[in-house]
Amino acid sequence: xxxxxxxxxRFFAGVLLAGVSTVAVMSQVGQTEAVLLFNAxxxxxxxxxxxxxxxxxxxxxxxxxxxxxxSVSVKVSxxxxxxxxxxxxxxxxxxxxxxxxxxxxxxxxxxIKVWKGEPTPSAGPVKTIPPVxxxxxxxxxxxxxxxxxxxxxxxxxxxxxxIDNHAMxxxxxxxxxxxxCVDEGLLYRGAGDCEVHEEGRHNLRFxxxxxxxxxxxxxxxxxxxxxxPVVLYEDASQGGKMQGFDTxxxxxxxxxxxxxxxNQASSIAVKDGYRASVCADEPAAGGDAVNCEEFGPxxxxxxxxxxxxxxxxxxxxK
Length: 318
Description:
318 residues, mainly beta, Gamma-B Crystallin, domain 1, four-stranded antiparallel beta sheet, 1 helix, 25 strands, 6% helix
């Protein structure tokens, strides 16, 4: 039996609203007049207000419609813009719209950004410019690989088509920064000789030695991970990729672990005054998460490594 479209959209709305507190970038209060998202075409159906900010959501939670046309449309107020992208980091295939009512080309988006002001130079369905492209030859020749905002280690097979110690040149899009290092380091977050590049085309100073790459979105004003109450780490002893969390509940299946994939965390750090529950299984409808570990302040390894799918962070009462 197919799901009730209203219940599906309410679920979508809940995910979106969760994003406001957990993954919003520069979210502003009182701006919900900016955009209305509908679960039908031509601005009809059930509507969900979207405030100014950036959110990770799954567009396929809405009705896909009949045939190839998705049942998703958007109404944008004057002076506002909205962008839907396939990648959770804002990359991949994107659609961007200004004032008016628009039917989306695809419901396969995982990222929404709403802002007030000027649109980006190209409007309508667009292919975004990759943040960083690395090449195996000097002067931007040979095999190439696109890198999105996150960290990459060659020894873990994260360089794609670029072989270890073969990165020689790079093109960096405006608004991004890339750091190259010759060593991964003890915590696997970059060490040894490193070089940093921003917008432009660059030949690498440490070419033929690169084993670590980190791409940063300069527009991301989110708090530093280590400043947040709880941090999950990819590796034991607080090593590898990390993601910080404020109070709330977070589901890996909804992309709310951000830089950590589902079943990837191996250790945790909890600040004084907070507690965290890390669970291997997300709660079923109306139920509780299961296979959980409880953590107070301090740094610990998870007993159930590489299984975390659910996190709850609470502030201890005095």
